[in-house]
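Task card 7
Instruction: Convert sequence to structure tokens.
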Amino acid sequence: MTKNHPTVADLTSLMEDWAPAWTAESWDRVGLVTGDPGAAVARAWVALDLTPELLREALAAGVDMLLLHHPPLFKPLTDLCSHRPATARLVQAAAQGLAIFAAHTNLDAAPGGVNDALAQRLGLGQTRPLMPLAEGGLVKLVTFLPPDHYEEVSAALFAAGAGRIGIYRDCAFVASGTGTFLAPPEANPYLGRAGQPEKVSELRLETLVPQARVAQALAALRLAHPYEEPAVDVYPLRQAPAGHGLGRVGSLATPRPAEEFAAWAAVELGARAPLLAGACPLRLTRVAVVGGSGGDLLQEAARAGAEILVTGEARYHAAQEAEDLGLGLLTLGHFQTEAVIVQPWARRLTDELARRNLDCQVEAYQAGQDPWRNPLSGAGHHHA
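Output:
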């Protein structure tokens, strides 16, 4: 019996529903890096980085797709020469047909993403984004069309990325009305006659579109629309997707002494060189977290009423700023504060694929390594 494996495109679509690419920071490079979107995926691994060990083990295990947090390709390539190890890994992956996908700052910001996973591991409740996604990321697209072309035009818009609200897809509002026009004698209108005033029955179609996909959506609409000159309105919105944003701030169920919480958090995440700075109160009740490098969000943490900011790494001057702001700053390692997403990520994909009756083995790669090590400890790399 043939198994119903998802394609690479199916998995990237699931990720787009969860952590849309347009929510990534402007400097980021997320999405599909190598691979055929139409290729079947029987086995996928989730990991933080494309390390030599991960690539070697994935190819030996017959993995079809890697989903990574850190993009393996940040700067445009000028060639595909293999004397650079990072390029050689991508060339090898492409040659072996291994698909590689990256979700970085968009996964940091997504509900259930890196920062929610970190907040959960540290026992925070009643969480909200520390810095919500900026306003202006969405527009409302409105067009008018004959009723017999609704399915064709709406399908084209949805395929171009329109109509997504949270986990819901193909969302639109449709209303009936009357359109009027006067086509010049040389025109060839789809409805009515040239040279005469006309009144026709039309549908008003409204749908949301990410600002970054407006051009793509407009091009798709014009290809599918039967009118010579379709009327289209694009309204910028002042709203951001609900729940998306960098960092999280929340409350501890039971207040804890600052030093005790810091020591416990370091053990919980396997931090090998935890550092505490700033001015912590005797007991913590409200905590902000930012996976990776989050020292630049100290001001946001202070405004949110946090008493301490937990992050992976921060600059020297951030420690001084924390003192001035009257809150603590705890660094637990970039790797340690982001590795928390690997298992939840794999579980989420497994559940979503099962709901769609798609058969794919999704695994969290457990041998990821922190590139930093403490030479005084005598220990090797830390394994997640």
